[in-house]
Write a structure and sequence with these properties.
Mean pLDDT: 90
Shape: globular
Number of strands: 34
Low-confidence stretches: 1-26
Distance between the termini: 27 Å
């Protein structure tokens, strides 16, 4: 009631000042003050449902003498006020966009325009505004289908894109969020037929959401993943590498001219921070079978005018020659290998030295020999002068995986951001590998008889309240075309899932990828 008290005090002071010069010209009456109760402080509602509120004013306040207003003030970066109703009781079909609001109820005395105001917290959600987005391959044609396990309602919704006007796409790869996508359409759906964005409100679709409208040339790529880099996005489609600068706006993708080789489909990048002046991304050259670093800001004369694309061992040499070039740390391996076949690459937030630089893991194969390489990608220039990571490049981990049971049959890998652990799936079995041991120690973690594990990952959360959930292992499996999603708690269990009872969601399609949709603010 602070606003009310201020208004009454101001009105009263003004009244007294006026009275001093013009006594006897006013009709004085006693204020009839409402006491607004009967409504909870925190309210939540779904879009298109009815928000019905009946405040108790503690007395009779007829509409002939009092006016009423219900307004909603959005709590986002660009706050706007929306008038909901001008009635004492609120009966409102919710058309507000999902988000957080301050709900303001005002009682106004018509004769004096004095008002009393009560405020409430209002959270507007969609039934699908938060929860698991489950990308499935449907039927013999592998139609891209999106199912949703809602945290808002506790319900599972199947085929949520069926009526959004999007053309049918096939051979799904991934469903993901990007901080450098358009704010109104921040989700990418990636398939063998091409890629498109999806809207933030109800996964709506428009023709201009197709990825081809983000291309600076006539290419129509079909990437398996789009990786956020510092102020940029990168992707690989059919071995061709694309880069989009996003310092201002979404940015347009263009092919990297220097990358004339065929690249593996995943780009290695530091996902622990975006505060790097000269970031590097890591590619695997499938032609020459070697690691390559791409750091476009190395071209700048302020840095030294170096080549943007370097073989990793050449980059190590270059960093040692640069002024303020930062250092290369770690002795897990002496040189980046050449001549091995690519198996898997994954970015994590695992940062054993608290440098703000997560480890990117790569699994390589040479015949029956399997090896793991862990690389930290930091500040390529001015590490000391500009702050941020304390080093430019880290050779953080190496392991011989050849003795891991059934490693040659592994179809899925997942790497923890909590500790030095790798997990891989064979059929319906998940193995855990402790990479901190030499030789590595392998344990059978999960067994799902009669099921095939088709997706396994650690979902990377962005919002602070969800960060501990980054350590939960997400497993998607299928039995006779019926999919099951399981989430195994990882923080309290310290990544040992052998005795963890999972959260289980059944009745889904053949799961290809899973991403948690966080409540957008």
């Amino acid at each position: 009631m602070n606003i009310r008290n201020w208004i009454i005090t101001t009105w009263a002071c003004g009244l007294l000042a006026s009275c001093a010069g013009d006594l006897g010209n006013y009709d004085y009456h006693e204020l009839h003050e409402p006491v607004i109760t009967g409504i909870e402080t925190d309210l939540s509602v779904l879009t298109h449902s009815t928000l019905e509120l009946h405040p108790d004013l503690g007395g009779d306040f007829p509409e002939s003498d009092y006016a009423f207003q219900w307004r909603a003030l959005s709590q986002n970066d660009n706050p706007t006020m929306t008038l909901l109703a001008e009635t004492r009781n609120l009966n409102y079909e919710v058309e507000l966009l999902p988000g957080s609001y301050r709900l303001l109820f005002r009682v106004i005395e018509r004769a004096t325009e004095i008002f009393w105001q009560a405020e409430y917290n209002l959270q507007v959600s969609e039934s699908t505004s938060e929860g698991w987005m489950v990308l499935c391959a449907d039927g013999t044609e592998n139609r891209a289908r999106l199912d949703m396990v809602s945290r808002v309602t506790g319900e599972t919704y199947l085929d949520v894109l069926a009526d959004n006007g999007m053309p049918e796409l096939h051979n799904p790869y991934r469903i993901q969020w990007s901080q450098f996508a358009d704010g109104e359409s921040p989700y990418y759906l990636l398939t063998g037929d091409g890629a498109t964005r999806l809207g933030r409100s109800g996964f709506e679709w428009k023709e201009e959401y197709r990825l081809q409208y983000e291309m600076g040339n006539s290419d129509i790529p079909a990437p398996e993943a789009i990786n956020d880099v510092t102020a940029a996005k990168m992707m690989v489609a059919d071995g061709k590498v694309y880069y989009a600068e996003c310092l201002v706006g979404v940015g347009l993708f263009g092919p990297i001219a220097e990358a004339s080789f065929h690249a593996a489909p995943i780009v290695g990048t530091n996902i622990s921070t975006q505060n790097i002046v000269v970031p590097a991304s890591m590619l695997y050259d499938l032609d020459a079978k070697r690691f390559v670093a791409y750091a476009p800001n190395l071209r700048s004369n302020d840095v030294g005018g170096y080549e943007a694309l370097n073989e990793m061992n050449d980059l190590v040499t270059l960093l040692g020659e640069m002024d303020n070039g930062g250092t290369v740390i770690g002795t897990a391996f002496e040189r980046f290998p050449q001549g091995m076949d690519f198996v898997w690459m994954e970015n994590t937030k695992y940062d054993p030295n608290n440098t703000g630089t997560g480890i990117t893991y790569t699994v390589l194969r040479d015949g029956s020999r399997y090896e793991l390489y862990g690389t930290q990608l930091g500040e390529m220039w001015g590490a000391v002068n500009l702050g941020g990571p304390a080093f430019a490049l880290g050779r953080a981990a190496w392991a011989d995986l050849s003795s891991c049971p059934e490693i040659a049959q592994a179809t899925q890998f997942a790497f923890s951001s909590l500790r030095s652990m790798m997990y891989y799936a064979v059929g319906g079995t998940v193995y855990g590998v402790d990479l901190s041991q030499t030789p590595v120690q392998t344990t059978r973690q999960i067994s799902l008889p009669g099921e095939e594990i088709t997706c396994m990952k650690f979902n990377i959360y962005r919002q602070n309240e969800n960060l501990d959930r980054t350590y939960d292992l997400v497993v998607g499996s299928v039995r006779q075309q019926s999919g099951t999603l399981r989430i195994y708690e990882g923080f309290d269990s310290d990544g040992d899932f052998r005795n963890v009872t999972p959260e289980v969601h059944t009745g889904l399609g053949r799961i290809v990828d899973v991403t948690y949709r966080e409540m957008l603010k």
